[in-house]
Specification:
3 domains, Arc Repressor Mutant, subunit A, D-Maltodextrin-Binding Protein, domain 2, 9 helices, alpha/beta, elongated
Length: 287
């Protein structure tokens, strides 16, 4: 049997056996005979070429491989249930991923305007701390990105620009200024996220680059900056979405702005993508 012949009923059968703790109860839950449950599981194991369950006279338990397959099966079945629900209700779901900050000051206006103009499309903002803000991982259909994406796989459109701001501990002498320059920060330790962040030492001239320390989450970034050990440079949206006692934001007046793009799978764009681009472009343009 080819693995491409996998059927949803096989996955439902596997999950039912694990959830019910045995073949008899799984058969009752599924409304089939115990023999049918055994045949369905056997077919799934042949298709995958692995043993999924360990059966003894007293219990049925997943093998280590079975645990992983069950986890995947639950996700697949949940997606199918969502698809059926959307089709039955006439509503469409749109998940927009983002890595650090969504749309800054535009986040709430975007959600409100979208809900009013497109009530048939249910909008969800999903934080995913990855370079593609969840696109590659499948947790969203479109993503707000502030770094270049692989143009072979992903389409993208520029929707706006954001100023770069410096995040400083409240007691820092630079916090008393209205704005700072890149040169003011070259002697400091810069906190960066090389996977998803918008700022790297390459923003400074080669002979004036700050030392760096790496972090992978915006909450950790803010906590370290508040201690006074490091400073950070980020897109303006971060300041709007993450206000933290002990941290102040100041514009970096000689730094290039951050390009904000919407990205999607090139070969599978969500039908609402053009409308999202239009609304976001309008919000950024009229800010």
């Amino acid at each position: 049997m080819d693995h491409r012949d996998l059927e949803l009923r096989q996955l439902r059968c596997l999950v039912a056996i694990v959830d019910e703790g045995g073949f008899t109860d799984a058969a009752h839950t599924l409304g089939v005979s115990q023999a049918a449950v055994s045949r369905t599981l056997a077919g799934l194991e042949r298709s995958l070429g692995v043993r999924l369950l360990r059966r003894t006279s007293r219990e049925v338990a997943p093998t280590p491989t079975g645990l992983r397959v069950v986890a995947h099966a639950r996700r697949v079945l949940a997606e199918v249930d969502d698809l059926v629900g959307e089709a039955a209700s006439g509503r469409v779901r749109l998940r927009i991923g983002y890595a650090w900050a969504a749309l800054g000051r535009h986040t709430v206006p975007f959600q409100r305007r979208w809900s009013a103009a497109h009530p048939e499309t249910e909008l969800h903002l999903v934080r995913a701390n990855s370079p593609t803000a969840g696109l590659l991982e499948g947790t969203c259909e479109v993503a707000v990105v502030r770094r270049p994406v692989d143009e072979r796989r992903f389409g993208s459109a520029l929707v706006g620009l954001e100023r770069r701001l410096c995040a400083l501990p409240a007691g820092d002498p630079l916090a008393r200024r209205r704005s700072v320059r890149l040169a003011d920060l070259s002697g400091r330790r810069l906190l960066v996220d090389r996977r998803t962040g918008t700022t790297t030492p390459e923003l400074w001239p080669p002979d004036a680059r700050p030392q760096t320390e790496e972090v992978h989450d915006v909450d950790d970034w803010l906590t370290v900056i508040a201690t006074g050990r490091c400073v950070g440079v980020t897109a303006e949206s971060t300041a709007h979405q993450y206000r933290r006692p002990g941290v102040v934001y100041r514009p970096v007046r000689d730094a290039e702005p951050v390009a904000v793009r919407l990205a999607w799978w090139r070969d599978d764009p969500h039908p609402a993508t053009p409308a999202v681009i239009e609304l976001l472009s309008t919000l950024y343009r009229t800010a």
